[in-house]
Amino acid sequence: MALRELKVCLLGDTGVGKSSIVWRFVEDSFDPNINPTIGASFMTKTVQYQNELHKFLIWDTAGQERFRALAPMYYRGSAAAIIVYDITKEESFQTLKNWVKELRQHGPPNIVVAIAGNKCDLLDAREVPEKDAKDYADSIHAIFVETSAKNAININEVFIEISKRIPVAEAAGGTSGKAFKLGRQASESRRTCC
Ligand SMILES: Nc1nc2c(ncn2[C@@H]2O[C@H](COP(=O)(O)OP(=O)(O)OP(=O)(O)O)[C@@H](O)[C@H]2O)c(=O)[nH]1
Description:
Blueprint: E1 2-11, H1 18-27, E2 40-49, E3 52-61, H2 71-75, E4 80-86, H3 90-106, E5 112-118, H4 130-139, E6 143-146, H5 155-165
Parallel strand pairs: 1-3, 1-4, 4-5, 5-6
Antiparallel strand pairs: 2-3
The structure holds guanosine-5'-triphosphate.
């Protein structure tokens, strides 16, 4: 079975739950007292997708402003970027839009963009309507899911949707995951959050 290495980076404001999403995906656990990321952290997980193995090389970047200049090191050469916002913080959704602009200007041309509205377990505190975020994601042809790292909602689905958008390796092409095109729309298979 072919193995493809897919570099993925997580971007977004501090405290939106980037590390928690990665931790939930890789270790299937949640730490309520997780520390802010310093610089970036790296984890991997390999999953089977159709007749390939996708090894996700996951760079979780720090959301604090003082680390922002480091981000290009992590999104450069990435097959996909997961931009995370917190559904209870409108400001984090505005930050997400800035990341989309930056990726469009300086990121890999065919990077797959996934938008994750995290903390969807906190419905009572919602500030960002799901429809607004979905409409925005559709307008930029991005994957969209609302997630809860805490309650393990839609975490695997984000990565499955990324796998779906990675074109099958061309016969003469490499398997490094470096050349990608935006493909079909996200499928309807994921769960609605909460
Ligand atoms: N209720 C709820 N809390 C969450 C969820 N995901 C993360 N948190 C909490 O949000 C806080 C920040 O989570 P982190 O994963 O450290 O956030 P981050 O985006 O990686 O932050 P930086 O590393 O500073 O960029 C922690 O207290 C988490 O326990 C979630 O899905 N629901």
